[in-house]
């Protein structure tokens, strides 16, 4: 359950935690930083569930150069920017199709993985203890072909209002070898179409007053079965250094983390198909990976979360990691725009709030509750 006394500190943490999906591994081997991933133009959420952006985010209907090889039963590990947003993570597949690069993602998907609220912790906190990574297995019985893999983190800190839930979405392109036949996996859902802004798993009026997250199930229907074989349970996330292949041009050879704290309450891949070699044969080097948005993934030990029940961490820390050696570096996270105005989705008011109250052009300061107003 979520106590009102935790509201102010949790929302301050949440407002600075916009995020993107940047990198993934197949059996502990990565094609590289943002390789094979369709990156959106910003780290802002999708909030209109009727939009085609619900499939693969803004600009997500456009494919990227690289499609990464995998096989049914392989372990997939995804990594997101650090997040204080309480909520679940889910994974879906779109396909098989002839070309993942040409696929828009608008249409039929089936869920293969879900992590909600476990042992008093939401998925974002569980991932935070594992360098914002989450692991799961591709189901057996998949037909061979190319697919889009959709990773979704749903932020529920604004779910008490219709349209307040925030969907963070990223899609990767995979070429999967499997043993199933077409139509083997189901049930399927349509995106857009399957989500409704007033669904009980999206709109939660009592999210801060009596809501029991132990009974929560993420949107998107049940985890699918393929030829009668469902996806296995998620692989336990293990805190470890971020690993990238030594040959990856997108990975940083040396990085210098710069610690920054969010002021809170008292606590503190050009290849057409990238083969995924067995992990025992791969040359891997440990290195933290930079986020182009400035909201970097924290190195192990640099994440100090303490999320009580539903609340976002009141002692949340992030680490801003130096960018890969490509002549650019990420800017530090910020919540204000020009002339002291608050950026879209930033906090602009509420009890105990003392910051800027004027929103940047195109957004309006809207009260979500007594303690929190947001530029939307």
Automatic annotation (TrEMBL):
CBM1 domain location: 340-376
Q: Where is this region: Disordered?
A: 225-244
Q: Where is the composition biased (Polar residues)?
A: 228-241
CDD domains to which the protein is assigned, alphabetical: LPMO_AA9
Q: Which UniProt keywords apply?
A: Carbohydrate metabolism, Cellulose degradation, Copper, Disulfide bond, Metal-binding, Monooxygenase, Oxidoreductase, Polysaccharide degradation, Secreted, Signal
Main location (coarse class): secreted
> Per the record, what are the reactions this protein catalyses?
[(1->4)-beta-D-glucosyl]n+m + reduced acceptor + O2 = 4-dehydro-beta-D-glucosyl-[(1->4)-beta-D-glucosyl]n-1 + [(1->4)-beta-D-glucosyl]m + acceptor + H2O
Question: Which residues belong to the signal peptide in this entry?
Answer: 1-17
The biological processes this protein is annotated with in GO are: cellulose catabolic process
Free-text comment about domains: Has a modular structure: an endo-beta-1,4-glucanase catalytic module at the N-terminus, a linker rich in serines and threonines, and a C-terminal carbohydrate-binding module (CBM).
Q: What is this protein called?
A: AA9 family lytic polysaccharide monooxygenase
């Amino acid at each position: 359950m979520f106590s009102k006394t935790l509201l102010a500190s949790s929302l301050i943490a949440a407002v600075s935690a916009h995020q993107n999906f940047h990198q993934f591994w197949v059996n502990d081997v990565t094609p590289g930083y943002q390789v094979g991933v369709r990156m959106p133009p910003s780290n802002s959420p999708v909030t209109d569930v009727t939009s085609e952006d619900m499939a693969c985010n803004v600009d997500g209907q456009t494919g990227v150069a690289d499609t990464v090889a995998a096989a049914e039963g392989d372990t997939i590990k995804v990594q997101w920017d650090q997040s204080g947003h309480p909520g679940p993570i889910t994974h879906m597949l779109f396909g098989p199709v002839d070309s993942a690069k040409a696929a828009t993602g608008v249409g039929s998907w089936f869920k293969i993985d879900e992590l909600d609220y476990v042992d008093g912790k939401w998925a974002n906190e569980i991932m935070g203890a594992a360098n914002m990574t989450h692991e799961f297995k591709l189901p057996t019985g998949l037909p061979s072909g190319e697919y889009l893999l959709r990773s979704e983190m749903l932020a529920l800190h604004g779910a008490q209002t219709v349209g307040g839930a925030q969907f963070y979405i990223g899609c990767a392109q995979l070429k999967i070898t499997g043993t199933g036949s077409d139509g083997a996996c189901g049930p399927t859902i349509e995106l857009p179409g399957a989500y409704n802004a007033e669904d009980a798993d999206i709109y939660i009026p009592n999210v801060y007053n009596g809501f029991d997250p132990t009974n929560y199930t993420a949107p998107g229907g049940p985890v699918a079965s393929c030829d009668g074989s469902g996806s296995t349970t998620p692989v336990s996330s293990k805190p470890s250094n971020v690993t990238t292949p030594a040959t990856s041009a997108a990975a940083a050879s040396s990085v210098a983390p710069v610690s920054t704290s969010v002021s809170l309450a008292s606590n503190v891949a050009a290849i057409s198909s990238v083969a995924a070699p067995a992990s025992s044969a791969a040359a891997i080097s440990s290195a933290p990976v930079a986020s182009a948005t400035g909201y970097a993934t924290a190195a192990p030990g640099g994440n100090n979360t303490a999320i009580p029940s539903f609340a976002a961490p009141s002692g949340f820390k992030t680490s801003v990691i130096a960018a890969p050696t490509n002549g650019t570096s990420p800017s530090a996270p910020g919540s204000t725009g020009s002339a002291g105005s608050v950026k879209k989705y930033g906090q602009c008011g509420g009890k105990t709030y003392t910051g800027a109250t004027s929103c940047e052009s195109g957004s309006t300061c809207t009260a979500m509750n007594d303690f929190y107003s947001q530029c939307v």
